[in-house]
């Protein structure tokens, strides 16, 4: 019994007893799942051998499907790469062109696929290839650069062939300015003759010059109550330098200037009044085209006038008024006092009080006695201006005379000239007509007629027996002509005045 028991006893393994294979635990739902059952069947099924003919068919089909999938995948990757390349090219083009009006396109470097989906994004639609656009019109060929076509006896130049010449003129319209809209003449096969093309070219050139003039006039002009940037800069500099405390605004506008009111500051050379005016001469030249004769024949500025451009002549006009005001102030004629001249801006004392300018003589209401006193004041000022200041106002009227503190003040003497001016006496007679007409309308009995007033101011004794203005003016012109001839011979300017005893002519104010 013991031997049999020993013989049947299983020897022990040095590694211990092996764990029995235990099947994995599955739930009832997993066991009943058909999907799990099919999966287990496939796993437990034998692998097909190479000798099985069905296995060869299966392998061949799978290999074929795999090769087609690889080709499609490669094409898709290539298309994606090309899209990224086009996007990078578009960014480079945008960076290269920037805001330039002339742009450079990298369209020739794009990757265009014939099988690319037409229903792409908006960016791809904008970037569609236009080199083979079926809707693009075929533009006819113009004359080659060399100017002729053909060889030998068959040479045809642009002058011989009207059709070729017309097409070339149409192509040359692209060289016009960008603001000229010429359209697509080549696409319509438009043929322009030389006459039409030259007319269009001249019109475009004229429009460019006109546009440039309008732009310059707008940028560098002083008109009405507006001043240009240069003038504003000069006015700001006066305020910063302390010459002016502040500029209050415009108080008057005229044909040749704009007047601003300002509070005075201080200067090292002379004191500045509490209230001043800035007379800004307009830099538009329209009003000065017919006013050159006031300054070009004035011997004080004659040499400088011929060497200046029109804009510098306006500065000369301001300088002339400053000199005339200084003469009048020295002769104690009531007028503004010149304070400072800066290019075409003249700073003068203000005629008025508390920011209220003095009224013009045409606007003030005076009694009969005051109006008579005003006439005698004007007569005395005209005589003093002519005899002591050696000046003729040349634009004297009720518009250029102010009434302030019971006195008449003269303003606007920029056009004033000396009596020796070639037209000085004519200007004086015109002033006398304006003054006489105004005071006669105001019922001033003592007001002289223009002829008597002219002789009283000038000291000349031109006969006034015939009341004809034309005869009187002819006498004045003849007198100016004789004086001009005398200047050419002697080099001096004198106006002859007949002496009482019938002797030789004398200069005004010279005793025997």
TrEMBL record:
Q: Which residues cross the membrane?
A: none
Query: A GO CC term?
Result: cytoplasm
Q: Where is the composition biased (Acidic residues)?
A: 117-127
**Skewed-composition ranges (Basic and acidic residues):** 128-139
Q: Which reaction does it catalyse?
A: L-seryl-[protein] + ATP = O-phospho-L-seryl-[protein] + ADP + H(+); L-threonyl-[protein] + ATP = O-phospho-L-threonyl-[protein] + ADP + H(+)
Which controlled-vocabulary keywords does the entry list?
Antiviral defense, ATP-binding, Cytoplasm, Immunity, Innate immunity, Kinase, Magnesium, Metal-binding, Nucleotide-binding, Phosphoprotein, Ribosome biogenesis, Serine/threonine-protein kinase, Transferase
Q: Which CDD domains match?
A: RIO3_euk (cd05146)
Known EC number(s)? 2.7.11.1
Query: Into which EC class is this enzyme placed?
Result: transferase
Single annotated GO MF = protein serine kinase activity
What sequence ranges are listed for the domain RIO kinase?
216-459
Residue segments, region Disordered: 115-159, 488-512
Q: Which SMART domains match?
A: RIO
Task: Spell out the family assignment given in the record's similarity comment.
Answer: Belongs to the protein kinase superfamily. RIO-type Ser/Thr kinase family.
Subunit: Interacts with CASP10. Interacts with IRF3; RIOK3 probably mediates the interaction of TBK1 with IRF3. Associated with 40S pre-ribosomal particles.
UniProt protein name: Serine/threonine-protein kinase RIO3
Mind giving the lineage of the organism this protein is from?
Eukaryota, Metazoa, Chordata, Craniata, Vertebrata
């Amino acid at each position: 019994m013991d031997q049999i028991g020993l013989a049947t006893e299983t020897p022990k393994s040095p590694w211990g007893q092996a764990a029995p294979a235990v099947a994995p635990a599955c739930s009832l739902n997993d066991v009943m799942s058909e999907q799990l059952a099919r999966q287990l069947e496939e796993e437990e099924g034998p692998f097909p051998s190479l000798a099985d003919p069905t296995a060869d068919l299966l392998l061949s089909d799978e290999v074929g499907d795999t090769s087609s999938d690889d080709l499609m995948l490669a094409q898709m990757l290539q298309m994606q790469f090309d899209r990224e390349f086009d996007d990078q090219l578009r960014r480079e083009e945008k960076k290269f062109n920037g805001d330039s009006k002339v742009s450079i396109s990298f369209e020739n470097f794009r990757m265009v696929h014939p099988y690319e989906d037409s229903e792409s994004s908006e960016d791809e639609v904008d970037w569609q290839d236009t080199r083979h656009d079926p809707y693009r019109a075929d533009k006819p060929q113009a004359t080659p650069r060399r100017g002729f076509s053909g060889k030998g006896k068959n040479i045809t130049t642009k002058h011989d062939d009207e059709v070729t010449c017309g097409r070339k003129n149409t192509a040359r319209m692209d060289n016009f300015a960008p603001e000229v809209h010429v359209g697509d003449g080549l696409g319509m096969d438009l043929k322009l003759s030389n006459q039409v093309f030259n007319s269009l070219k001249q019109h475009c050139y004229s429009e460019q010059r006109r546009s440039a003039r309008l732009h310059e006039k707008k940028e560098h002009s002083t008109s009405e109550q507006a001043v240009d940037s240069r003038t504003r800069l000069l006015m700001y500099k006066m305020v910063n330098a302390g010459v002016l405390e502040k500029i209050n605004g415009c108080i008057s506008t005229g044909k040749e200037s704009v007047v601003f009111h300002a509070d005075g500051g201080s200067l090292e050379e002379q004191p500045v009044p509490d209230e001043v005016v800035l007379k800004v001469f307009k830099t538009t030249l329209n009003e000065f085209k017919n006013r050159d004769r006031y300054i070009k024949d004035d011997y004080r500025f004659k040499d400088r006038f011929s060497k200046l451009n029109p804009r510098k002549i306006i500065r000369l006009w301001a300088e002339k008024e400053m000199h005339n005001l200084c003469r009048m102030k020295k002769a104690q004629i009531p007028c503004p006092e010149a304070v400072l001249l800066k290019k075409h801006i003249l700073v003068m004392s203000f005629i008025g009080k508390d920011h209220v300018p003095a009224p013009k003589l045409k606007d003030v209401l005076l009694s009969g006695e005051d109006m008579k006193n005003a006439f005698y004041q004007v007569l005395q000022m005209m005589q003093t201006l002519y005899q002591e200041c050696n000046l003729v106002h040349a634009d004297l009227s009720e518009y250029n005379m102010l009434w302030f503190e019971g006195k008449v003040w003269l303003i606007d003497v920029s056009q004033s000239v000396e009596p020796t001016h070639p037209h000085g006496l004519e200007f004086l007679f015109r002033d006398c007509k304006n003054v006489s007409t105004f005071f006669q309308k105001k019922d001033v009995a003592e007001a002289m007629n223009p002829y008597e007033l002219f002789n009283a101011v000038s000291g000349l004794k031109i006969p006034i027996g015939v009341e004809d203005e034309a005869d009187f003016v002819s006498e004045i012109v003849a007198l100016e002509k004789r004086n001009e001839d005398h200047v050419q011979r002697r080099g001096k300017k004198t106006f002859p005045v007949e002496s009482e005893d019938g002797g030789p002519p004398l200069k005004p104010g010279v005793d025997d």
